[in-house]
């Protein structure tokens, strides 16, 4: 049952990156768009994620509940030593959701629309950025549990080049996913070509920012590549993600719609597998040691009850979620044009 819980934990994190990350990426694409493309991105974003955007946070909630119930030591450690980036992540989620609703349903179109738009795009950048910072800090070994002052204990660990580089890499990945997904949502050939160009640019930025993560890691003594070489699964996953790049480019150049989506999902899956396998069995690495999932797991009865709850709950939640997505894709959505 332990491995059932771990599988649900990783799947929930993966699905949050795939679905929630693409939603954040739509705001990132809008942030770095100009002119008519910004407006078209805004409208397509509402068409694509408007009906189901709230459901994406279900995966984050599941991951948090699993950590809280099944791995309380990890939950407590993260909540204490990473409470600032974690709080900023939650602020970004709340601000983005609030702005998304107000900018589409506010009955009065005035100056506040610009404020809603600004909050939406900047929080769309902020949320995956701090999600990446959390991940980067967790594997960097920068947390000092023996620190004697507030700055050293709660700010310095995540305010460094390596966590920031992972945060930027996460932002670019979200933008890349969104650009690829929005190709299929575009209503005209011109819009599809514009989002293909965005996808190519974001993909190149993802390659550069990914290389930057490895470079900064090496400079700061975080031997990511060395760790990958010692873990065959992680190394194979990294090779698979790399080989998927030219396939994605070919599919984009051939103006395919659904195959690039599949390849992007595969790449994100491989990247997460690379990260997880390279650090196995550790889940959080700090200056004085590490915490593994096995070592931080709750008692057997708790793990068993949690696993059964996840298995039974998935029988009801997953079919309903997929039907929700299917039903909204089949129904026309009324789009309100924003200034």
Summarize the structure.
It is a multi-pass membrane protein. This protein is an all-alpha fold. Helices cover 79% and strands 3% of the residues.
Can you describe this structure?
With 339 residues, this protein is mostly helical. The chain has one domain (2-330): Formate dehydrogenase/DMSO reductase fold (Up-down Bundle). The protein is 79% helix and 3% strand. A two-stranded antiparallel ribbon has the order 1-2. The longest helix has 31 residues, at 189-219. Mean pLDDT is 85; it is low at 331-339. It is found in: Cell membrane.
**Which H/E pattern describes the elements?**
HHHHHHHHHHHHEEHH
- What is the CATH superfamily classification? Formate dehydrogenase/DMSO reductase domain
Read across the widest sheet, the strand sequence of neighbours is: 1-2
CATH class: Mainly Alpha
Number of helices: 14
Low-confidence segments, given as residue ranges, are 331-339
State the helicity in percent bands.
Answer: over 70%
Counting helices, strands and paired strands, the structural category is mainly alpha
Number of strands: 2
Any idea of the CATH topology?
Answer: Formate dehydrogenase/DMSO reductase fold
The average pLDDT value, as a whole number, equals 85
Strand fraction equals: under 5%
Please identify, by name, the CATH architecture.
Up-down Bundle
Total domain units: 1
Distance between the termini: 53 Å
The biggest beta sheet is recorded as: 2 strands, antiparallel
Which structural traits does this protein have?
single chain, 339 residues, mainly alpha, Formate dehydrogenase/DMSO reductase fold, two-stranded antiparallel ribbon
């Amino acid at each position: 049952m332990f491995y059932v819980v771990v599988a649900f934990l990783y799947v929930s994190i993966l699905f949050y990156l795939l679905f929630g990350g693409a939603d954040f990426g739509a705001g990132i694409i809008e942030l770095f768009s100009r002119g008519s493309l910004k407006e078209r991105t805004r409208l397509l974003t509402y068409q694509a994620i408007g009906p189901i955007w709230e459901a994406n946070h279900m995966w984050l909630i599941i991951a948090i509940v699993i950590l809280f119930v099944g791995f309380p030591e990890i939950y407590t450690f993260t909540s204490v030593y990473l409470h600032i980036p974690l709080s900023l992540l939650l602020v970004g989620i709340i601000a983005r959701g609030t702005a998304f609703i107000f900018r589409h349903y506010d009955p009065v179109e005035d100056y506040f629309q610009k404020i809603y738009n600004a909050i939406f795009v900047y929080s769309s950048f902020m949320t995956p950025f701090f999600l990446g910072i959390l991940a980067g800090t967790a594997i960097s070994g920068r947390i000092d549990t023996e620190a004697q002052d507030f700055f050293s204990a709660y700010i310095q660990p995540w305010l460094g080049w390596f966590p920031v580089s992972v945060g930027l890499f996460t932002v670019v990945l979200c933008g890349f996913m969104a650009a690829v997904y929005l190709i299929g949502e575009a209503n005209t050939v011109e819009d599809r070509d514009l989002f293909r160009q965005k996808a190519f640019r974001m993909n190149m930025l993802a390659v550069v920012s990914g290389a930057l993560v490895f470079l900064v890691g090496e400079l700061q003594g975080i031997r990511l590549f060395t760790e990958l070489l010692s873990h065959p699964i992680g190394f194979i996953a990294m090779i698979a993600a790399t080989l998927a790049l030219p396939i994605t480019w070919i599919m984009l150049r051939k103006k395919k719609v659904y195959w690039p989506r599949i390849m992007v999902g595969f790449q994100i899956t491989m990247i997460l597998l690379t990260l997880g396998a390279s650090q196995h069995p550790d889940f959080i690495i700090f200056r004085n040691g590490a915490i593994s999932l096995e070592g931080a797991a709750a008692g057997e009865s708790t793990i068993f009850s949690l696993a059964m709850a996840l298995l039974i709950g998935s029988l009801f939640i997953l079919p309903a979620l997929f039907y929700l997505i299917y039903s909204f894709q089949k129904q026309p959505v009324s789009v309100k044009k924003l200034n």
